[in-house]
């Protein structure tokens, strides 16, 4: 079977956008594919320690966030979880890939430019982030990568690096292809021009998987919509409502059919009420499993046999790569 890889950074609480964009589609792929789901703990510190005067509170919060992310993913039904920091070969491969790529490839990337502007500067990790992401994918010789549309730029770089390596040293890496999640990007509940984000300071902009039913209902009922009461799908003129309609159909697993949308609800209030119900039901099942694991103190890194197997694959592949490039 083809190997599919995806991942998530353990920063902040996992939200509905992560769930519909990555977690739920990945869970569906597990039945018919070999899979690896990477908890990208190394990526998560690419900017957190930059300009920090003390790292103690940052490291404490990171440990807590990693545990929460791991247990949330397990509660969602994600298997074959591995921590990025458990595989040191990833950084070794990233160095090799960095040696065959140009600096300009990274400087031109839109996410680098945005982060550089937001931080008024850049750590080395921010500019080299994409090459470590490429190593995440290539070390295990992944065939397909589940990504959101905002990660396409990074995957294109990864494909270029694989092609470049193969052209220099002979065919080694498969060229990884994208799998785009069926559900379009889920946007901010207060401003549909921005994506739903863990880093948003306002909790009203996002629905976290672990939110209580009351909080979910409050956030949805207060979510921004226009003054038109009729419910219909219009991505251009009714961005906020269209975003909420995508959430509804992403949860129930159906395609959006405009005629059905118009018939289904008499007004926006009825639609929001139904949306509350389906989100609360879906998140409730996950939240129950999460708190059961917390109560029983079940945090432990995934099955040792699996992790050891993946580590061995990483070690074996890196040894081959080192010989190819001329290392002892």
Automatic annotation (TrEMBL):
One Pfam match: tRNA-synt_1b
Top-rank taxon, per record: Eukaryota
The keyword NADP is annotated on this UniProt entry: no
The UniProt record lists the keyword ATP-binding: yes
Keyword tags: Aminoacyl-tRNA synthetase, ATP-binding, Ligase, Nucleotide-binding, Protein biosynthesis
GO biological processes: tryptophanyl-tRNA aminoacylation
Family according to the record: Belongs to the class-I aminoacyl-tRNA synthetase family.
Protein's organism: Stentor coeruleus
Annotated InterPro entries: aa-tRNA-synth_I_CS, aa-tRNA-synth_Ic, Rossmann-like_a/b/a_fold, Trp-tRNA-ligase, Trp-tRNA_synthetase
GO cellular component: mitochondrion
Parts forming coiled coils: none
EC number in record: 6.1.1.2
GO molecular function, one term: ATP binding
Protein name in the entry: tryptophan--tRNA ligase
């Amino acid at each position: 079977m083809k190997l599919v890889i995806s991942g998530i950074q353990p920063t902040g609480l996992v939200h509905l956008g992560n769930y519909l964009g990555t977690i739920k589609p990945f869970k569906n792929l597990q039945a018919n594919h070999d899979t690896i789901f990477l908890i990208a703990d190394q990526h998560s510190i690419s900017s957190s320690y930059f300009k920090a005067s003390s790292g103690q509170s940052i490291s404490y919060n990171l440990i807590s966030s990693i545990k929460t992310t791991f247990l949330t993913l397990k509660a969602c039904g994600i298997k074959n979880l591995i921590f990025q920091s458990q595989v040191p070969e990833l950084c070794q491969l990233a160095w090799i890939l960095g040696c065959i790529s140009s600096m300009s490839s990274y400087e031109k990337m839109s996410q680098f430019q945005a982060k550089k502007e937001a931080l008024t500067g850049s750590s080395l990790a921010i500019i080299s982030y994409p090459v470590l992401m490429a190593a995440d994918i290539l070390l295990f010789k992944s065939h397909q990568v589940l990504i959101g549309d905002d990660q396409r730029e990074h995957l294109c770089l990864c494909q270029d690096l694989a092609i470049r390596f193969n052209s220099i040293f002979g065919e080694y890496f498969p060229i990884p292809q994208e799998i785009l999640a069926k559900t379009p990007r889920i946007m901010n509940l207060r401003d549909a021009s921005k994506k739903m984000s863990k880093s948003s300071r306002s909790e009203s902009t996002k629905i976290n998987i672990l939110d209580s039913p009351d909080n979910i209902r409050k956030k949805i009922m207060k979510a921004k919509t226009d003054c038109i009461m009729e419910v219909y799908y219009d991505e251009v003129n009714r961005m906020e409502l269209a975003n909420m309609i995508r959430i509804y159909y992403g949860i129930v697993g159906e395609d959006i059919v405009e005629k059905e949308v118009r018939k289904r609800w008499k007004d926006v209030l009825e639609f929001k009420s139904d949306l509350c119900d389906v989100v609360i039901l879906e998140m409730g099942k996950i939240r129950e499993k999460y708190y059961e694991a917390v109560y029983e103190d079940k945090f432990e890194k995934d099955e040792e046999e699996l992790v050891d197997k993946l580590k061995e694959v990483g070690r074996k592949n890196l040894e081959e790569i080192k010989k190819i490039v001329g290392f002892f």
